[in-house]
Amino acid sequence: xxxxxxSSLSRRALxxxxxxxGMTGVALPTALNLAAWGEAAAFNASDYKALVCVFLYGGNxxxxxxxxxxxxxxxxxxxxxxxxxxxxxxxxxxxxLTATQLIPATARADGLQFALHPRMSGLTQLFNQGKAAVxxxxxxxxxxxxxxxxxxxxxxLPPKLFSHNDQQxxxxxxxxxxxxxxxxxxxxxxALSSNGLSQFxxxxxxxxxxxxxxxxxxxxxxxxxxxxxxxxxxxxxxxSSDVRDAIRQVLTGAHAGSMExxxxxVVARSVEYEGTITSALETASITTPxxxxxxxxxxxxxxxxxxxxxxxxxxxxxxxxxxxxGFDFHDNQKARQPALLQQLSEAVTAFYQATVEMGIADxxxxxxxxxxxxxxxxxxxxxxxxxxxxxxxxxxxIRGASFVGTPPPLSAGDTSxxxxxxxxxxxxxxxxxxxxxxxxxxxxxxxxxxxxxxxLLPNSGNxxxxxxxxxxxxxxx
Amino acid sequence: METIDQTIDTxxxxxxxxxxxxQRSNTAVQVLTLTGIGGLxxxxxxxxxxxxxxxxxxxPKEVQTSPLPKSTxxxxxxxxxxxxxxxxxxxxxAERILPALFGGSPITQSSxxxxxxxxxxxxxxxxxxxxxxxxxxxxxGQVLRLGxxxxxxxxxxxxxxxxDNEAAQFxxxxxxxxxxxxxxxxxxxxxxxxxxxxxxxxxxxxxxxxMVSKGYExxxxxxxxxxxxxxxxxxxxxxxxxAPDQVRQRCALALSEFFCSSKDGIDGHPWLRNFxxxxxxxxxxxxxxxxxxxxxxxxxxxxxxxxxxxxxGNQKEDGLGRVPDExxxxxxxxxxxxxxxxxxxxxxxxxxxxxxKLETYTNVDVVQLAxxxxxxxxxxxxxxxxxxxxxxxxRWPDRRMSTRPMFLEERKHxxxxxxxxxxxxxxxxxxxxxxxxxxxxxxxxxxxxxxxGRQMIQRLVTSNPSPAYVARVAAAFNDNGIGVRGDLxxxxxxxxxxxxxxxxxxxxxxxxxxxxxxxxxxxxxxxxSETVRNSWKVEGMEDGQNRIGQCPLxxxxxxxxxxxxxxxxxxxxxxxxxxxxxxxxxxxxxxxxYVNCMEEFIRNGLVTSTSDDLYTTGAFVEPIFKxxxxxxxxxxxxxxxxxxxxxxLNLVLCGGKLTDATRSAISRALAAVQWNAQELQWYPAVxxxxxxxxxxxxxxxMVSVDYLVQK
Lengths: 477, 711
Prior knowledge:
The structure holds 2 protein chains of 2 kinds. Chain A is α/β, with parallel strands linked by helices. In chain A, 34% of the residues lie in helices and 13% in strands. Chain A has helices spanning 11-21, 31-36, 71-82, 121-128, 147-152, 164-173, 183-191, 231-234, 241-252, 258-282, 295-308, 310-313, 333-357, 435-446, 453-456; strands at 49-56, 66-68, 114-116, 132-139, 202-204, 219-221, 317-324, 364-370, 374-378, 383-385, 389-394, 402-404, 433-434. In chain B, the strands form 6 sheets. Chain B has a 6-stranded mixed beta sheet with strand order 1-6-5-4-3-2. A two-stranded antiparallel ribbon of chain B has the order 7-10. In chain B, helix 20 runs antiparallel to helix 21 and helix 25 (588-604) runs antiparallel to helix 31.
């Protein structure tokens, strides 16, 4: 655990680290900034691995993404969701699901069948080819939790359930809004010393996300078009190197104030890394076609190009963050969710194919996340904020064509019936697998040891064994 | 807008600023007294003199609870002079500390030994000999002795005149620009009187009226404006860049980040996006210095929010599984009124005995409150739609559908009991009454003052206000000085006039990162001519890779561009335990894009091409690219004196906050500028070295952290 303590930083280690980072060119303005790049545990990684988070902002309706397909289950879902008005149903018809039926490598003993939304043919094929798996009913828990315990509030619960911003933060950092360190960034902390240019350990193509903040690792933000140069600096827009140098001083110099200094650091990083990234990307083209007019595909394409440039960038372990927004369908879901699911499916599929093109499909694992699933019962044309949801894991290393975890009973009743015990009202799923287990499984594949998991995931001590194993087995350890 | 006003008038709760309790509780006797004064005034033909006689002839009673605090420093760090103030000093002081009561700075009149000022609404303040006298609704219509002049030594403390830099700093908090003329006006009036004047300035043209004046409501084959998505944005930028009631626009912008409407919520609704956005802006402006309670209701029923947060179309439970949507119920509590945690008046979080934060509501409250917001839909009852001409061929709704408050369809409203936050609305209560009770409950929750007040301080002044500062602003929200809760004018006044809003008086953590949209508006107001600004078609500014990365009312979600509690990771700010909300949108991409974008705007102007040009002849024509340049004639006159040029920009852009290091870097750059003919390709409008110097100086100031961090 001392790995995560700043107090363990030795002066020698810090100096070594500064040397490795090659602090030339733009001087990083403050001593504190240098200290932020502290020494962390090394994976001593010789191979390459990347984890790619696809965050579905707004809370995706998992009930309408991984859809019960066997006639009995479809009927149960339909009875709850269509109510007395089938025309108001947001569900695809059962007959529309045939082409996207998921065929697991091992047939389920319980006879349950599932299909993806009809617009998700790409992900269906990846699943059926063994390159993708489905995680059922996963969500944040502090400890294993039953509905009775939830109702009695007799055990600790994740704070601010059903609230967008807080649950986004909890998914990314196991802590509500205000968290400054996420589990992706903590993995980055461990990976820093494996990477030649450690500033490219944690990269977001989707803006600021607490997921990628570490104690030492800072997230680098890239646009889908690559790094944005500051032209007045890069190409001497004012026609003189003396002017350029003066501009550089104003943009990246030192300042006594905290906010000023923090802002200067961002610009200094931008100036410093832009050249490296831009030149590395020049030769890193991908021939796999990515779909157009697809914000997620744009992000995943730049991630693919960065992975292709991993040699130039000296990267051995990288964590990426991408996102697709707009899933908060309280109404209009039937008209609008399918297009987003299609974008998700096409973007992730193209990205997987790009990793095949690069010959590293088994070194890149992509997973979806979202602040919450949604209610099983509907509002007028949509659904409300929920808790647990279903997610995807994609990549050559995934033990694919498999369902992980337990499919929830399709029930929204408030009785003592066993089928009513896996939701907390309105069909808000009580997670049967914790985010902690899900993240731990991904992290373990990435190279994080069991003793290091509590540093990533503060709740990890509360899970393990029985119905809540710390490794869910969908990736090799 | 008439409809909305009517709605407010009939639905405001009993205690609002328009209807203070001491007036509402008028007895017949009191009404007679007031009428009597009015009658006497008119009968004598010279109103104020008669009032003076009245004050002289009546025996003043000693007041028990005077609004004028004796020897109590309000926000001033008073050092008692020991001197008895003059009558004029007393009047001016009373106007400074109680502008809600003594507004408008009227002239002093005299009659015999009495000197007095008349403030309208039957309110007078007078000095007779050494007796301080008051008359008005605040004295229940009776002449009261408020004390002796000697009781108010604070009033004798002279006001130190503002320096140019202090004036510019204040202007940049209270509005966008700080031009030399504005600095002079502020210095002559002082902060409080200037702010009072600006807050009382007439409401300028609305964004909706501006759109109509530009022909943007037409549905015809010539313009096809209806099918353009960014006209509402243009209207907002136009108002921000041009409207004369700048303080109102600035405060509306701050409110727009509290009552946040997001682009995510409306981009699927093109008919709503333009006029709905413009009208929402107009409502924020209209109510910026009015009642929070009234604004909360306008927001709740506005089509833009109805679509954003799903009150539109929300229906009662059907008994078959469908239940009311919870979105608005959740967000109106979490974001628009009380927040997640119980707060002390100073904004600190209340905790239980175990140190656990006390939450304001549970999910049960959300579920129950959700029933209140059922039965609402867009009010298209008497409206028609127009078939759009040409190939689009769809029916386009009357624009009033996106500006009228949503209407209540009683049969779709839940009549179940609604129990939340300690309030129980009985089963069977009709929709309008349910809404009134629900919004009253939220409005009267003790969290609102500190929750809203702290965020408004963050938007206008500093990211990390002291608890005492928050408490003073919350106190102004809770009581504007005459017993009225929720007076936003009093709240903004408290935000802007507080001692802690002055960088000289505040600590080293004072200040905030200027928002990109505020920087852009400041540039436009400082350098661009009015004609140019009026034709600007600014759009796409929320793009953080090619533009400034921010556009009013186009936050990515209802959680705004950034959160009030955001702590930037791996920073000195974060290590010090401080928040810096605006840093949430600062990263390697956006920071560089801002620099590029400002260089482009400053040197090249804005390049626009829109269908104003495309369809003027009724048929599609190739777009005409227009280059809209700013006017730097003031700066050009200083170009041969670099120090003077930098001093000028230092004042008007950042209130004198440039460090020596930045000043010397700019001077070095100005001395090193060379002419480069190749640049004509990039900057065809820049034809002289002198222009280039001015552009460089403006650019370097506006990308320096001395400017970016507002102090």
